[in-house]
């Protein structure tokens, strides 16, 4: 894949953790008194989970619309279109594999799109936490 200097510089600045959406959700959960771990690998050799509640075994991913192919907001670059299509498809496949691996190990996996307001995301997470504790 050929890239120009501007594209290369822009891509180097893309965060893979502590994104604005992640920080907003974490702030909201903390404000509500919820405590959690951040960027933790819960299975050997697996990718890190954005927000982890180890006791109730809930793993929360805050997925970016572009990188994880949001059905509402995903865009496809025009330059190097084939390469990007393959890259984004690999991301989605890796996500599904991570979901399956975590579920097989007894974890509840939550995937929340970055466009979901932090308060709504925290509501969903709290409902899952309350449901686990009620069982």
TrEMBL record:
<keyword id="KW-0234">DNA repair</keyword>
<dbReference type="GO" id="GO:0016787">
    <property type="term" value="F:hydrolase activity"/>
</dbReference>
<dbReference type="GO" id="GO:0006298">
    <property type="term" value="P:mismatch repair"/>
</dbReference>
<comment type="similarity">
    <text>Belongs to the Vsr family.</text>
</comment>
<keyword id="KW-0540">Nuclease</keyword>
<keyword id="KW-0378">Hydrolase</keyword>
<dbReference type="InterPro" id="IPR011335">
    <property type="entry name" value="Restrct_endonuc-II-like"/>
</dbReference>
<dbReference type="Pfam" id="PF03852">
    <property type="entry name" value="Vsr"/>
</dbReference>
<dbReference type="GO" id="GO:0004519">
    <property type="term" value="F:endonuclease activity"/>
</dbReference>
<keyword id="KW-0227">DNA damage</keyword>
<protein>
    <submittedName>
        <fullName>DNA mismatch repair protein</fullName>
    </submittedName>
</protein>
<dbReference type="InterPro" id="IPR004603">
    <property type="entry name" value="DNA_mismatch_endonuc_vsr"/>
</dbReference>
<keyword id="KW-0255">Endonuclease</keyword>
